[in-house]
Specification:
196 residues, 7-stranded mixed beta sheet, 3-stranded mixed beta sheet, 14 strands, globular, endonuclease, nuclease, endonuclease activity, Restrct_endonuc-II-like
Length: 196
């Protein structure tokens, strides 16, 4: 099977969605441009799974946790080049998945209360700078970044419009939060190295 040539134009959200899941090997759309996403490492996947397990019990009624899903950031009008991100985890209004199932499209930024990204060596700047600004511009209230370097750390951002996200200091060991919902995460447990 040969891969069709990469589109030579800026893409709208609908054009991006029409490309299909693996046709081009691109995971995201940034202002109409296809963007490659690095393949996750085993540690990355283990940490994402652990985070999912830690967050699930606290997810508020009417919301759900979804892993590795395309999100329309709603930063451009319909028919104009758009932006799509594929975060590691999102906490989203439960009605969003039903809407996608019945009407098509993607999860929308306006349906999300929390985005979580786990940094990969090749995604550090993208997740820490570009996505942070994109998620803030999209109005997503909470953004957490988990860094796998050295000892695991988590930085929590909360939206304080119009200035963007307010950043907390990196937390190591135990992370606790009350917003967007109460949660306690043992960051050292996430890698599961206690048996090694």
């Amino acid at each position: 099977m040969t891969t069709p040539p990469r589109p030579d134009r800026l893409l709208t959200i609908d054009q991006y969605a029409a490309l299909g899941e693996t046709e081009y090997g691109y995971a995201e759309l940034q202002e109409g441009r296809l963007v490659r996403s690095p393949s996750p490492t085993p540690d990355h996947n283990v940490v994402v799974g652990g985070l999912r397990d830690c967050l699930r019990p606290g997810v508020p009624d009417g919301h759900e946790l979804i892993q590795d899903v395309h999100v329309d950031l709603e930063l451009a009008p319909a028919g104009r080049p758009g932006s799509v991100r594929r975060p590691d985890l999102v906490v989203v209004d439960r009605a969003a998945r039903r809407r996608v199932r019945s009407s098509g499209g993607m999860i929308r930024a306006s349906e999300i209360i929390l985005v979580v990204e786990v940094l990969s060596p090749d995604s550090h700047r993208t997740d820490s700078v570009f996505k942070r600004h994109d998620y803030a511009d999209a109005g997503i209230p909470h953004y957490w970044i988990v860094d796998l370097q050295d000892r695991l750390s988590l930085v929590a951002y909360s939206l304080t419009m119009p200035s963007g996200y307010l950043e907390t200091a990196p937390v190591r060991g135990e992370f606790t939060a009350t917003e967007p919902f109460p949660v306690r995460i043992d960051l050292d447990w996430l890698l599961g190295d206690e048996d090694v």
